[in-house]
Specification:
The complex is a heterodimer of chains A (about 375) and B (about 375).
Chain A lengths: L11 H6 L7 E4 L2 E4 L2 H23 L7 H8 L5 H36 L11 H18 L5 H27 L6 H25 L2 H12 L7 H21 L3 H4 L3 H6 L4 H23 L5 H13 L6 H21 L8 H19 L7
Helix pairs in contact in A: 2-3, 2-4, 2-14, 3-4, 4-9, 4-12, 4-13, 4-14, 5-6, 5-7, 5-8, 6-7, 6-12, 9-12, 13-14, 13-15, 14-15
Chain B lengths: L24 H34 L7 H9 L5 H35 L11 H16 L4 H24 L7 H25 L1 H12 L7 H28 L3 H6 L4 H23 L3 H15 L3 H26 L7 H19 L6
Family (chain B): Belongs to the binding-protein-dependent transport system permease family. FecCD subfamily.
GO biological process, one term (chain B): siderophore-iron import into cell
Protein name (chain B): Iron ABC transporter permease
Chain lengths: ~375, ~375
């Protein structure tokens, strides 16, 4: 987590005297953390809320199931019908929401930390725009010109999104590469590429007929509609593979915050550390975008919200992931149920829910925070 | 373009240099030389802009030779070329000119006030404020005229921007770069989401929105340009008056305050200028955001960190880029055309990336 760079202490007796004022430290074998009770509390409350909202989300629908029964089914009980509805029909959708939200928020927290820019999201390496171009071309070309038919188009969209995201990320990195990666240059090249691809996306929207444009709009705002286990698995796998390196790499985030030169001066190997973090962020955001579309606002706002809730100096990773999952699932619940028969894409609701909260936190301004 | 790639070592502290008490004659000479180079560069950009204007009038589905353009501008006799030039090409070129200047200047102000290289003129919620009111007007009130879109868009842009400024200013300390940027991003996302709701509910609004969204300067009524012109002029004057204050703010708020600048006033004026410039442009042309993002970076690469130079360079470069992109859009898809918003990104991004790779970066 976000500790100060640990100093080698000559003897245990000195180590006991070295304390961060007001913050108890946890020491386990060779590692040590600053214990932040507030962060812990936010994470625990967030997790509890997440389980509750998930249970409510799974329960609501044409065949309502109470929260208690949902939890029973998840623990292995319940009738056959309930098991089928919960485990096969509704759980995958909620799980996709949880994983996608967590992945996007984590990716956002990492990119905001390494670029030291509160506006930076995985967009800065063109993830969203690359995925959007690829997916919208499949939707528009597949729909209006009949080049791809039904089932093929359905598989094609996520796969195209994934390829688009990673292809763009690689291209941006190579274009910004000049004897190593400087984050300022990366940001500029990335945002330019983002605009280029976004313009192409909007141009594609004007090509097809209006129904295809509508389908593309739904994809572009991010949707969890009809997501099954086949969407859960890749995202879960990506999280399993990518979260550990991200958390290991995050050890240096505190040092990177002082700028590249200072970080280098206090002994951080900046280029490999940042490359590791960037690769994890790109992977997380790319897979999440492919699974649910670019669910807007999560990657941008959640790290900032988490930072203000925990009162830390930079976005906390794990809390961001928990809150990202919470926001996405809550938004999905509202998107499904709050508007009667009509179902909105989840990305619409994430922003409608998240933006006022971020505004409120900004207005309260606990203290000056400069990311 | 060689002419204005001049300043070999744009110093980040360039903003402060003119204010310091220079005593040595060498420094004075160096400063004079730098000023001369900057003026020459400005003249070169201006010349380029004139060329872009001429191209914009001459090139299109119907090619018009330059002597006929001249003829149409100064002694029209009602020939076919005269009609095309005076009723179609000229208004479009003028709109491109003012829109480019407005967006370039607004982008430079925006990046300066938020001190964020990712800021574009739409960051204060202007773009999506306009988008939301336009689609809302179509959905709820059945607005169908272009005039309706323009004024709905303008009002939306103003409201969103004022909202962001208030939101970024509450709490102690007034508006800071970070709160402004975040409040703007939050507002933009909120309005984008609401726009998406309306567009998904109403396919007629979607049909207008998807064409509005790409941004274009073609087919706009000349009267419309005249109507928004006062807002643009006022915005431009306020923006230029804002430049010395921006230089002080670039040193940090505390330093600026101790130098005797009224930080709150400077910020407020800057935001007002951005709102007027961007709001009016977005209302007429749709969101052409890319220009305001890229052009200030290019200007900074050329002249360093002095806003008194960045702002004019940004304006002129913005207009040049916009017009050239518009011409390119007419050439590539002849006899039809690609909207300028798309062409801008296609033309501008490779140029920008080459620029960013080759030059030493000037940080905000």
């Amino acid at each position: 987590m976000t500790t100060e760079p640990t100093t080698q202490t000559p003897s245990p007796s000195v180590a006991e005297q070295v304390r961060v004022p007001g913050r108890p430290a946890v020491r386990l074998a060779g590692a040590s953390w600053v214990l932040r009770l507030r962060m812990l509390a936010v994470a625990v409350v967030g997790l509890a809320l997440l389980v509750l909202v998930m249970a409510v989300n799974i329960g609501r629908g044409d065949f309502p199931i109470s929260v208690g029964e949902v939890l029973q089914v998840l623990a292995g009980g319940g009738t056959r019908a309930q098991q089928f509805i919960v485990l096969d029909l509704r759980l995958p959708r909620s799980l996709t929401g949880v994983l996608v939200g967590a992945a996007l928020a984590l990716a956002g927290a990492i990119t905001q930390s390494i670029t030291r820019n509160p506006l930076a999201t995985p967009d800065i390496v063109g993830i969203t725009a690359g995925a959007s171009v690829a997916a919208v071309s499949v939707i528009v070309v597949g729909g209006s010109y009949g080049a791809l038919s039904g089932p093929l188009a359905d598989i094609g969209v996520p796969v195209a999104g994934l390829l688009g995201a990673f292809g763009t990320a690689v291209a941006v990195t190579l274009l910004a590469w000049k004897r190593g990666i400087e984050s300022y240059r990366l940001v500029l090249v990335g945002i330019a590429t983002h605009w280029l691809l976004l313009s192409v996306t909007f141009w594609l929207l004007t090509l097809g007929d209006v129904t295809d444009a509508g389908r593309a709009m739904i994809w572009l705002t991010g949707s969890l509609s009809g997501r099954g286990w086949e969407h859960v698995q890749p995202v879960a796998l990506a999280l399993l593979v990518l979260v550990p390196p991200a958390l290991i790499g995050s050890r240096v985030l505190g040092a990177l915050q002082f700028g590249d030169d200072t970080a280098r001066g206090i002994g951080v190997r900046v280029t490999p550390a940042r490359a590791l973090l960037l690769v994890s962020a790109v992977g997380l955001a790319g897979v999440a975008t492919a699974a649910a579309g670019p669910v807007v606002f999560v990657a941008l706002a959640i790290p900032q919200i988490a930072m203000r809730l925990c009162r830390t100096a930079q976005p906390p990773l794990i809390v961001s992931a928990v809150l990202g999952a919470l926001l996405t699932v809550t938004a999905d619940l509202l998107a499904r149920t709050a508007f009667g028969g009509a179902e909105l894409p989840v990305g619409v609701v994430t922003a409608v829910l998240g933006a006022p909260y971020l505004m409120y936190l900004l207005a309260r301004r606990y203290r000056e925070v400069r990311a | 373009m060689r002419g204005h790639v001049i300043d070999p070592s744009p110093t980040p502290q360039g903003a402060a240099a003119p204010a310091t008490n220079v005593t040595r004659a060498g420094d004075v000479r160096a400063m004079a030389a730098r000023r001369r180079r900057r003026l020459l560069g400005l003249a070169a950009v201006l010349a380029l802009l004139v060329v872009a204007c001429l191209l914009s009038v001459a090139v299109g589905a119907k090619q018009i030779p330059l002597d006929n353009v001249w003829h149409a501008l100064f002694q029209p006799t009602g020939t076919e070329d005269d009609v095309v030039v005076r009723s179609l090409r000229l208004p479009r070129t003028l709109l491109g000119l003012v829109a480019g200047i407005a967006l370039g200047v607004a982008g430079a102000l925006m990046q300066g006030h938020t001190r964020n290289p990712l800021a574009d003129p739409g960051l204060l919620g202007v773009t999506y404020g306009a988008a939301f009111t336009v689609v809302l007007g179509i959905y709820a009130l059945g607005v169908t005229s272009l005039y309706g879109y323009v004024w709905f868009g303008f009002v939306g842009a103003l409201l969103a921007s004022v909202g962001v400024f208030l939101l970024g200013s509450v709490g102690r300390g007034g508006p800071t770069p970070v709160t402004l940027a975040l409040a703007g991003a939050a507002m933009s996302n909120l309005l984008y989401a609401l726009t998406a709701v309306v567009v998904l509910l109403d396919s007629q609004a979607l049909d207008v929105y998807r064409f509005w969204k790409v941004g274009a300067i073609a087919g706009r009524d000349p009267d419309l340009v005249v109507q928004v012109l006062p807002f643009l002029v006022v915005g431009l004057v306020v923006a230029l008056a804002n430049a010395p204050g921006m230089n002080a703010l670039a040193l940090g708020e505390d330093v600026a305050r101790s130098l005797g600048h009224r930080v709150g006033l400077t910020r407020g004026l800057g935001i007002a200028a951005i709102t007027l410039l961007t709001g009016a442009t977005v209302a007429v042309c749709g969101p052409i955001g890319f220009i305001g993002l890229v052009v200030p970076h290019v200007a900074r690469l050329v002249v360093g960190a002095d806003y008194r130079w960045i702002l004019p360079y940004s304006g002129l470069l913005g207009a040049t880029l916009l017009l050239l992109a518009d011409v390119a859009g007419r050439v590539v898809a002849r006899p039809g055309e690609l909207q300028v918003g798309i062409m801008l990104a296609v033309v501008g991004v490779p140029f920008f990336i080459v620029m960013v790779r080759r030059r030493k970066l000037v940080r905000l």
